[in-house]
Design brief:
The protein is an alpha/beta fold and about 150 residues long. The protein contains 8 helices and 5 strands. Strands 3-2-1-4-5 form a 5-stranded parallel beta sheet.
């Protein structure tokens, strides 16, 4: 099975591995996957993360914290390279275009991630299950919320 980390989940993973050196719930789950299962990112997530990191770098430079900004940017860049990237294919575009107005209200990037997951039969790993659950056909899991026994 292939899992796709959405932007929020990848960002949580990134923050926990950069700022709080501990094993994140996402890292632990990835480490425990059975053979044959893997984790990837969509090009949508890569784009969102890079835009966010460029914005952060710009704010850090304005605050005179160039070194920290470049360090964080480089760590994010290197973390992105550890995951395969799934493209937004013509089939994903067709799937995306077929979403209802109600489904599209959750936001363009989430709908694009969902379309990629649906056409490739991948599972979206997200903290935002409420949004993704509104899209018919997408399979979701949350690896961050700790379930109460």
């Amino acid at each position: 099975m292939r899992y796709l980390l959405d932007t929020d989940t990848f960002t949580a993973f990134l923050y926990e591995t950069i700022r709080e050196p501990k094993t994140s719930p996402v890292s632990a789950r990835i480490a425990g996957l059975p053979p044959g299962d893997d984790v990837a990112l969509t090009i949508v997530t890569v784009t969102e993360v890079m835009k966010g990191m460029l914005n952060l770098l710009q704010r850090m430079e304005k605050a005179g914290k160039d070194t920290q900004g470049f360090t964080d940017f480089e760590r994010a860049y290197r973390a992105l390279q550890h995951f395969p990237v799934v493209s937004f294919s013509p089939d994903a575009q067709v799937c995306f275009d077929a979403f209802s107005p109600a489904e599209r209200r959750i936001g363009r990037p989430d709908c694009q991630i969902a379309a990629i997951a649906i056409v490739n039969r991948h599972t979206v790993v997200t903290r935002n299950t409420r949004h993704f659950a509104q899209i018919a056909g997408v399979v979701i899991e949350d690896w961050i919320q700790i379930e109460n026994p």
